[in-house]
Amino acid sequence: MGIHPGAVIHPTAVIEDGAEIGEGCRIGAYCVIGPEVAIGARSVLHSHVVAVGRTRIGEENQIFPFTSIGHIPQDLKFHGESVELIIGSRNRIREHVTMNPGTGAGGGVTRVGDDNLFMMAVHVAHDCVIGSNVIMANNATLGGHVIVEDHVVLGGLAAVHQFVRLGRGSMIGGLAGVVADVIPYGSVAGERAHLAGLNLVGLKRRGAGRSDINGLRAAFVEMFEGEGTLQERVARAGEKHAGNPLVAEIVHFITAESSRSFTVPA
């Protein structure tokens, strides 16, 4: 493919042989694009952006100055394996963001979905999988192998331990240190994060029905209070609220295989 004739490239930008630049792209001053990088149509790299390695960037992304995309992972076990970073479309990646590719031991791919906002100085480590419509506020950090499902919001300076899963629609408070999985629609806060409730605002914004939300609120109490283990309480709540899709999603999340425990109420 090479460089599309409709791309606009500043004369100070360095585009290495082999790079692919799509139609309508704009590559600003002092950007550096490596030989294995592919950038989709109408994406904009404003200036001073570095993209290297086997990196695939989709269409209509906006990448702001001093962002580092695709440099080798910060993992001492990495020894130069062939790995990738795949970024979807319509993402906004603000200043000083860093995104690393995968590692050979972790599957080899870091994957980012569509329509996400990564604010200033966000870090996405190796082998992470990020869905779509995610917001990561300033200085939020993901350790390696983290899974972030759709519509998750991370507040400023939040830090997520490696291998943690953040369920769909969850809300991570600013400064929170998250060391265990967060259920879908959960709201967590605290220096060592605890489950503070449900992200009801997010559910309402995405059009969840009142009856489903009320059922979820009742199920939440049943899952995290009372007798028995968490797995036993979750099974009972799932049976009691069968037919509620929000409850079913949390039941599936908790019963799925994971290497981490769960973030629970304080």
Concise synopsis of the structure shown:
This protein has helices at 200-205, 210-224, 230-240, 245-255; strands spanning 8-9, 14-15, 20-21, 26-29, 32-33, 38-39, 44-47, 50-51, 54-57, 62-63, 68-69, 84-87, 92-93, 98-99, 109-112, 117-118, 123-124, 129-130, 135-136, 141-142, 147-148, 153-154, 159-160, 165-166, 171-172, 177-178, 186-189, 194-198. With 266 residues, the protein is of the alpha/beta class.
List the helices and strands and how they pair.
Elements: E1 8-9, E2 14-15, E3 20-21, E4 26-29, E5 32-33, E6 38-39, E7 44-47, E8 50-51, E9 54-57, E10 62-63, E11 68-69, E12 84-87, E13 92-93, E14 98-99, E15 109-112, E16 117-118, E17 123-124, E18 129-130, E19 135-136, E20 141-142, E21 147-148, E22 153-154, E23 159-160, E24 165-166, E25 171-172, E26 177-178, E27 186-189, E28 194-198, H1 200-205, H2 210-224, H3 230-240, H4 245-255
Parallel strand pairs: 1-4, 2-5, 3-6, 4-7, 5-8, 6-9, 7-10, 8-11, 9-12, 10-13, 11-14, 12-15, 13-16, 14-17, 15-18, 16-19, 17-20, 18-21, 19-22, 20-23, 21-24, 22-25, 23-26, 25-27
Antiparallel strand pairs: 27-28
Helix pairs in contact: 2-3, 3-4
Entry keywords:
single chain, 266 residues, alpha/beta, UDP N-Acetylglucosamine Acyltransferase, domain 1, 2 domains, eleven-stranded mixed sheet, nine-stranded parallel sheet, 16% helix
